[in-house]
Amino acid sequence: MGGKTAVKKRGAYFDRKETRSRERRREEQAGELAAMMRLAIKKSPVIRRRFEALGVTPTKRNACELLKKLPVISREKLVQMELDDPPYAGLGNPDAAIERIFTSPGPVYEPHLSESDPIWARAYRAAGFGPGDVVLNAFSYHLVAAGLTFHSGLRRVGATVVPSGASSAAVQVQLIRDLKVTGYTGTPSFLRTVIARAEEEGYDVRKDFGLRKACFAAEPLPPALREEFERSYGIDTYQMYGATEVGDVAYECREKEGWHLCEEVIVEIVDPETGLEVGPGELGEVVVTRPNDIFFLMRFGTGDLSRLIPGRCRCGRTAPRLAGIAGRVGEAVKVRGMFVAPSQLRKLAEGFPGWKFQAVVTREGNRDLLTVRVEAQESGRGKDVLASFEKRFAEICTVRIDRIEEVPTGTLAGGSRAIVDERNWP
């Protein structure tokens, strides 16, 4: 992403694709999708049979609608498909020149899609990584995709990479100190472990080290941990989201108001029960298709729940944004057509410290009834506070509470489930 492929806007660098109009993005992605579909029909008997069943030839005009008619492939399904037809479940291009093959538990074999791919570089550029940075890459370089692919992304933005991988916390501390490391990429929990080791050795992380930015993936970044990194240690934090089967899916910009969808992927938010797209702003499963000419995996169901944020980001990028990950398929419960996930309730709890609550779904007649049991200190149960709670619940969960049931302190013990479904279906 040098000067010829990046533009500067409001003090930040963007790949030109990141600022294209949404109409142009849809048109260009439809063309890329149609090209992959046509190639897949030629190279993959599995795909050929699927499209023969549809009875339609893919074109730029109909590709996006055809995509919605294909089945969603969960990771569990992909594992079984690869066991039945190794190594790529019949979805690979036998004539493709593949540079690397990665593996993940299952096993799932994943052909590396492109060495020249800018997809991770965009995420690191958005996080402020660039020339002059020395970055500790604490992702594994062994068999799995993370280490080498993140390494490539960092190099594309001009950063120097320290391939520390799965080295011990003590070794990581030594590298940060001796090599004047300025950035970290890995999981947030491991960075916290490294910081704890540094403090055990007597270092003042903020004063003694030059570590000032971090870009995380592979696990959630809890708000409290983000605040600790940023306030206590002066480390500016960013998140990336992806899956080994399709690569990067989304990433945070400096506004930190959602994750921008990557330009190389087509993302749908679907009802995990039907595979149909949900309404604007509604919670559903993240389903990803990445047009390419190597591995024809279409409609990969990540198993993660999220929703799209309406409106444009102030950073200048025009891609839609994911509102983080709200949970996993199977954890959420559908109430009046909307999914409510435990992580949404955890987010709600941030605004009501000291409260415990539990959502209970029942059914009266032909309508779902949502009751929220609330355990709060006596001083926090006023009508205004409960009204504020109801309003915030609707904003976060996109479904309204039918009844609030105040329960005595101690009713909701630590092992209580966040969501209880008490409906009896005939």
Your description of this structure?
This protein is α/β, with parallel strands linked by helices and 426 residues long. It has a domain at 333-421: ANL, C-terminal domain (GMP Synthetase, Chain A, domain 3, 2-Layer Sandwich), CATH 3.30.300.30. It is 30% helix and 25% strand. It contains 12 helices and 24 strands. It has helices at residues 22-43, 45-54, 63-68, 75-84, 119-126, 146-156, 169-178, 188-200, 205-208, 223-233, 342-349, 383-397; strands at 6-9, 12-15, 73-74, 101-104, 108-111, 134-137, 160-162, 183-186, 213-216, 236-243, 247-252, 259-261, 266-270, 284-289, 300-306, 308-309, 321-322, 327-328, 333-335, 338-340, 356-364, 367-375, 403-406, 419-421. The chain has a 9-stranded mixed β-sheet with strand order 7-6-8-9-10-11-12-17-16, sandwiched between helices. Helix 7 packs across helix 8 and helix 11 packs across helix 12. The longest helix has 22 residues, at 22-43. The model has no long low-confidence stretch (mean pLDDT 89).
